[in-house]
Automatic annotation (TrEMBL):
Organism the protein comes from: hydrothermal vent metagenome
UniProt cross-references to SMART domains, sorted A to Z: AAA
Keywords noted in UniProt: ATP-binding, Nucleotide-binding
Protein known as: ABC-type efflux pump, duplicated ATPase component YbhF
One GO MF term attached to the UniProt entry: ATP hydrolysis activity
SUPFAM superfamilies: P-loop containing nucleoside triphosphate hydrolases (SSF52540)
InterPro entries: AAA+_ATPase, ABC_transporter-like_ATP-bd, P-loop_NTPase
UniProt xrefs under PROSITE patterns: ABC_TRANSPORTER_2
Residue ranges occupied by any ABC transporter domain in the UniProt entry: 106-335
Keyword Acyltransferase: no
Family matches, as PANTHER family: ABC TRANSPORTER G FAMILY MEMBER 20 ISOFORM X1, ATP-BINDING CASSETTE, SUB-FAMILY H, MEMBER 1
Length: 353
């Protein structure tokens, strides 16, 4: 069996730390090959079976570790990870200025968008605090992308109010955009330009020049391991490296808020893990992240999220609380997919009544 060699190498660990901090600390352990957030735990794969479990939790407060049954994905990731190396902590992606108060940096109140008679988004409300990773989760047509585009000023609001970085987006969109980094699903890159030329263009577009611009480009290429591809045309890069370049470009001006629209669609599992490693580090540094996704496992990276359907918010909470809502006594812990399906079924039953 493909996963049989993984016996004794897969563990579930929890501790009195935030899930993001716990994952980061475990990922830096030299005995750990892979660390993945799953609900209230972090799923860890070690390099070999000889790793004493106590070395994995040494120094972690109130740690609990338990061996778990390997699955196909563990073996697949193990094979991919063997030839990769762990990323260094980014040095150039912290925001230039982050407000020190605890007020929400994104505020949506009864946000609506109509296309003729069709209501794509219907009175959606939520707040996002500084340093949070906040998710918009839903199937195609749920209204999450329309909501997302209104929040970053790409689509006019039909009714309701939205404030980003303390600025009324309906009145001063240009001022708000100065605080925003945006990474589109299809990566807004210039394919015929090289990696370095793309970063040079985006740095200039964000107002950087001279020594500061050169330093920012150099550090971004180092952080995202793009230096070997400096003179490579963006259109010829593997998809995972296009993703790195797009994220580096979005962060060139060190924004306070980062908008990510389906950022990992089409990339392999290892590239997805590397991408979220960067996003977690950004959030730890104080950057606020708003992300749309239809990957249920990626919802576990979010501090809070909303689940949408038919242009409405069905639920807003942390992934852990949403999973707990649909846990049945005596059964295994509910997954995000379980919670999502249950909410959709409740919504459909209510609509049919």
């Amino acid at each position: 069996e493909f996963s049989a060699p993984m016996q004794g190498r897969v563990w579930e660990i929890s501790a009195a730390l935030s899930k993001r901090r716990l994952q980061q600390q475990l990922d830096l352990n030299p005995a750990v090959l892979d660390a993945l957030t799953e609900g209230r735990h972090v799923r860890v794969i070690t390099h070999d079976r000889q790793t004493p479990p106590e070395t994995l939790v040494e120094g972690l407060p109130e740690a609990h570790i338990e061996a778990v049954t390997p699955r196909f994905e563990d073996a697949f990731i193990s094979r991919l990870q063997q030839n990769s190396r762990k990323l260094a902590t980014p040095t150039s992606t912290s925001p230039q200025s982050v407000s020190s108060d605890d007020n929400a940096v994104i505020q949506a109140h009864e946000l609506s968008r109509c296309f003729g008679e069709f209501i794509a988004v219907n009175k959606v409300s939520f707040d996002v605090k500084r340093g949070e990773i906040f998710g918009l989760l839903g199937a195609n047509g749920a209204g999450k992308s329309t909501t997302f585009r209104m929040l970053c000023g790409l689509l006019p609001v039909s009714s309701g109010s939205v404030r980003v970085a303390g600025v009324d987006l309906r009145r001063a969109a240009a001022q708000a955009r100065a605080h925003i980094g945006y990474m589109a699903q299809r990566f807004s890159l210039y394919g015929n330009l090289s990696v370095q030329e793309n970063l040079n263009f985006f740095a200039s577009a964000y107002g950087l020049s001279g020594k500061a611009k050169r330093k920012r480009i150099h550090s971004s290429m180092e952080d995202f391991e793009l230096t070997p591809f400096a003179n490579t045309a963006a259109q010829t890069l593997p998809l995972g490296f296009k993703q790195r370049l797009a994220l580096a470009a979005a962060l060139m001006h060190r924004p306070e808020i980062l908008f990510l629209d389906e950022p990992t669609s089409g990339v392999d599992p290892l590239a997805r893990r590397e991408f979220w490693w960067h996003i977690n580090a950004l959030a730890e540094s104080g950057v606020t992240v708003l992300v749309t996704t239809h990957f249920m496992d990626e919802a576990n990276y979010c501090d809070r999220l909303v689940i949408m359907a038919d242009g409405e918010v069905l639920a807003e909470d942390s992934p852990e609380n949403l999973r707990a809502r649909f846990h049945q006594p005596g059964e295994v812990e509910a997954s995000m997919e379980d919670a999502f399906i249950a909410l959709i079924e409740q919504h459909q039953q209510k609509a049919a009544a």
